[in-house]
Amino acid sequence: MKGLEGKVAIVTGGAASIGLDITRVFVEAGTTVIIGARSREAGEAAVKQFGDKVRYVSADIRKDEDLDALVAAAVALGRLDFVVNNAAVYDDNGPATNRQSWLNTLDTNLVSSALLSEKARPHLAKTKGAIVNISSISAYAAQSGRWTYPVSKAAILHLTHSQALDYAPDGIRSNSLIAGWTWSDPIAGLSGNDKEKADRVGGQYHLLGRVGRGQEVANGVLFLCSDYASFTTGSELKVDGGYTAMGPEQAGQAIAELTGGSASVR
Question: What residues are annotated to the active site?
Answer without folding.
Answer: 149
